[in-house]
Design a protein that fits this description.
The protein is an alpha/beta fold and about 230 residues long. It contains seven helices and ten strands.
Length: about 230
């Protein structure tokens, strides 16, 4: 579990449990605190796991995560579609080799013992830029997202709240929503409608958002400020 904020009602720590839910979504307006939250989550991953246990790839067209990328866990940093496409194609080739063969026992499936290596975390900021008019390079990974626990894949994805209502049907985000991926809905326009978990965005102070998860519903959270 990676702590990232405080629950408004209980004043208790709120965490992203990447063991139970491998992916995480963040949606919010400009300066709502999306990039800060990605930095907090990245710092939590690198503090809890060694470079042998976790590898990180950044897809960050505006380079807002440059400081967070200066860790030994980092194995790739894409700042444009020209670099993101080939990098994610390599990621897919590596992850396909981790898919479980048909002759595994129940115990092997339970312990994920048919492959060894580090879990892979993909931190994606400004996904609205990444998806673009030409289509998202992440579509190559969309069929692997439901098998993330088996193959050690984690996608932490942030996008703007502008146009988020339509973006809910973009292939990658739609697949994440169908999986019940938890996420934080930060400040945004209510006219975008219900995004996930039946929750609409609304005006909120920077760093605050509604944390939506399938087990506990939604609750107001103040995220930590990364130094």
């Amino acid at each position: 579990e990676v702590p990232f904020g405080i629950d408004e009602n209980a004043l208790a720590t709120v965490s992203a449990d990447f063991g139970a839910d491998p992916h995480f979504l963040v949606i919010g307006d400009t300066e709502a605190g999306k990039s800060n939250l990605l930095r907090v989550l990245c710092a939590g991953v690198t503090a809890a796991q060694t470079p042998e246990q976790a590898k990180i790839i950044f897809v960050d067209y505006r380079r807002s995560l440059l400081d967070s990328s200066e860790v030994p866990h980092q194995i790739g940093y894409a700042t444009s579609s020209a670099t993101a496409g080939p990098l994610l194609a390599e990621v897919r080739d590596a992850l396909v080799k981790r898919l479980p063969p048909p002759d595994l026992t129940a115990e092997q499936l339970r312990t994920r013992s048919w492959w060894s290596g580090a879990d892979l975390y993909l931190f994606v900021d400004d996904y609205d830029l990444v998806a673009g008019a030409a289509g998202s390079p992440f579509v190559a990974l969309s069929d692997l997202l439901p098998q993330a626990r088996d193959i050690g894949l984690h996608v932490v994805l942030a996008r703007s709240a502008g146009g988020a209502g339509r973006a809910m049907f973009e292939p990658v985000i739609q697949r994440l929503r169908e999986m019940g991926t938890p996420g934080l809905i930060m400040s945004g326009n209510r006219d975008e409608g219900a995004l996930f978990g039946g929750v609409r965005p609304g005006p909120l102070p920077p760093g605050r958002g509604l944390f939506v998860e399938r087990r506990a519903g939604s609750r107001l959270v103040q995220t930590a400020l990364h130094p």
